Amino acid sequence: MTITIDKVRIILVGDSGVGKTCLTHLIASGESLSRPGWTVGCSIEVKLHEYKEGTPQQKPFFIELFDVGGSLNHKNSRGVFYASADGIILVHDLTNRKSHSNLREWLFEILSKEGKDIYKPVTSTVAQRSDEQNNFDPEEFIGAAQMPVLVMGTKLDLVDEKRQPKTVQKAGGIAEQCGAEEIWLNCDDPRSIAAGTTDAVKLSRFFDRVIEKKLQSRDNGFYGGGSVTDRRRYNTAGATPYNINNY
Ligand SMILES: Nc1nc2c(ncn2[C@@H]2O[C@H](COP(=O)(O)OP(=O)(O)OP(=O)(O)O)[C@@H](O)[C@H]2O)c(=O)[nH]1
């Protein structure tokens, strides 16, 4: 039997080396990745998610995970991957404070590149642009763009409370500013987001929010992306979700 499954698109952004590729693989396959390559452009993995599992509204959805390369060299070209994103996962390295503070800039970059009317920068000089970036308010962005956000901190295994205290505190961080949930994990350990754990529940709730938001936009007639109409056929007799690397 062949059924048609809708999809949503989530982009993972953050500085180079924070662990986006490992995290994407862990979420999509439930397995750790021992030797991730350097992401050039964008790498995509797909996960099959049960929306509102255990309720009468339960329905399968494909979650497309766009792992966007964090290198500065690709800053000008990666805007193309932000188009029609339905949700954002902001990724930082818990042993690297700068990677956390840079998440503000990542949000700003997504918004300015993706061209949401509500927060589209109108200025063009470097100085003006830097001003806009400094004055950028994540809360305002989230309120205006209505895009679900999740913040994930990696390399929890490298954080030793005594020898290397956490460089980032949960309170007052970007997650709080965005009203987003936050997960800290070790991407090398498949048990980090194993079914039944608190973090797996948080992740599943985030996926549900992204889907819900998209369904609402479609119902309200605001839907402009290609995702829901571009449905994928999924053969329930054993086919596995696709995996496209370095898209
Ligand atoms: N110990 C530990 N290492 C990790 C963890 N997550 C990622 N790494 C390591 O961090 C390095 C960078 O990981 P990637 O997943 O390639 O990072 P990325 O953010 O995709 O980097 P770009 O492709 O440059 O954007 C690799 O050596 C990973 O093995 C973690 O939770 N714990």
UniProtKB/TrEMBL annotation:
Keyword GTP-binding: yes
Keywords for this protein: GTP-binding, Nucleotide-binding
GO molecular function, one term: GTP binding
A Pfam family per the record: Roc
PROSITE patterns for this protein: RAB (PS51419)
Domain of life: Eukaryota
The keyword Acetylation appears for this protein: no
InterPro entries: P-loop_NTPase (IPR027417)
Family named by the database record: Belongs to the small GTPase superfamily. Rab family.
PANTHER family cross-referenced by the UniProt entry: DRAB5-RELATED
Function statement: Required for KRAS signaling regulation and modulation of cell proliferation. Regulator of KRAS prenylation, and probably prenylation of other small GTPases. Required for lymphocyte development and function. Not required for myeloid cell development.
Record's protein name: Rab-like protein 3
